[in-house]
Amino acid sequence: MKKMLLTSSLAVLAFVGYAQTARVQVIHNSADPAARFVDVYLNDALLLNDFKFRTATPYVDAPAGTPITIGIAPSTSDGPEDAIAEFTYTLAADEKYVIVANGVLDPGAFAVNPDGASTAFNLFVKSGTREAGLDPNNLDFIFFHGATDAPTVDAIAREVATVVDNASYSMFTDYVSVPADKYFIDVTPGDLPSTIVATSRAYLDGAGGAAAVIFASGFFDVGANPGGKALRLYYALPDGTVKQLPFINTAKVQVIHNAADPAAASVDIYVDGVLAIDNFAFRTATPYIDLPANVPVSIAVAPPTSVSVDDAIATISATFKAGYGYTVMANGVLNPLIFNPNPDGADIAFNVFVKENTKYVSDRANGLEFIGVHGCTDAPTVDIIARDVATLLDNVSYGAVSGYIMVPANTTYILDVALGDAPETVVASYEASLFDVAGQSAVVYASGFLAPDLNPEGSLPFGLYYTLPDGTTGAFPAYVMRAGLTSEINMTVSPNPAVNTAQVTLPENFTGTLQVIDMQGSVVRNLIINNNAGNIITFDVTDLAAGIYSVSAFDGQTRSTSKLVKQ
Fold it and tell me: Where in the sequence is the domain holding 511, given as residue range(s)?
């Protein structure tokens, strides 16, 4: 029969007769299937009964200033004499420790450590640990490398910093303090930080002021370690809570067909040799779909009559980062020699453009976030101008992909496509009504040929198109004056910039609405104008934050938009 269990209340680790104590947390991280459950003895008394793999105790008091013996025994043990390993320590009074049980009972039966480290069962001790973070806005953590068959690794908070650098098996890092936020944690070989072998999602936005131990747990190669659990990242909190930082192994990818070559009006798309999209039509798109991440993925484009990937006309290999969104756009022409060349000398051969870290969910509830792509092979460098508001895309050449641009959604814009070196020369104008896309993200792209008559028969004319995350694709209609109108609403805004008040000059007898919209898409002023006898509308702007606003006048037929700068 097992001896008296001292941990019916974990606080009783302060043995009677010991005047000095230390604070200790114990973590079971031995991935050996034979040690899934163990008994832990302290000075011949049973401390932890059936202590399970990937669990932890809270911090508790332990004797300090005198040697203590910790024995590890099978879960079927009857007493300390059944221990398979014993370790003696002297803890310092008033110090804090983390003790991690790790390794395997018979190293000869498991994969060796690639750096030559001993993988034998052991207790690894870290002093100077914390039961709380030092900053209420940050999470403080140490990292322990507990995967016996994994090499030296880095852990990188993507686009933030390397938080673990060259950690080898059984190594503890010092404390790292990071803002309590959401992260992708990329695990890479220590000598190849650009090669991601695993990605974990860390949602730490509620962890401000906390301290934790993050530990690598399990086997890197499960097949070489029969019965073992696969490598994962876990964290232990001071109260003994243990949770997994889940690994993710897919990326969200959207494919857009924007190759205007009539011979590629419909194509087949293969992913890793398997037909993924059959008869994919020009100016259509997929929704965002899951594709393998952190490994090379082959994307091949073939004629619609293809019978296998061997018929591909173009193939790219891409490695997508787990958790990210990607836009993959097929563009260009199959035989550049029979098409009108690009006036800037750009290569217009069929290609696949890949944009990393695109948004399949918008960050803004009231705005539209979009990237712009110049996909018109025979068009020069251009500007895209939201008339009377701002230049959205400046000097964009063929094949260029912009970063994200956010515009208010609850209005209508006139988009002028102008020559990049002569923005006063507008080559086409489009009307973008954004009343149904608030909170969305999009890809906006030039499509077709600027001079279809100079390209092969069947070539389609230039247009400005958009694709939403669900695959919805549409054209922005060409801007034309409404029937019966000779001009837009004649509207001026002054002073500009404005400090306390702003004035909008409208035609006499104007009836309609006047809205002021901020750059997040929120309507901050909504004025109903009914048969305005005068022509000047004055309103207060003292409460508006400094920045750029859109002023939109709508009379039921025509909408005009102008810019207001608030100082």
Answer: 492-566
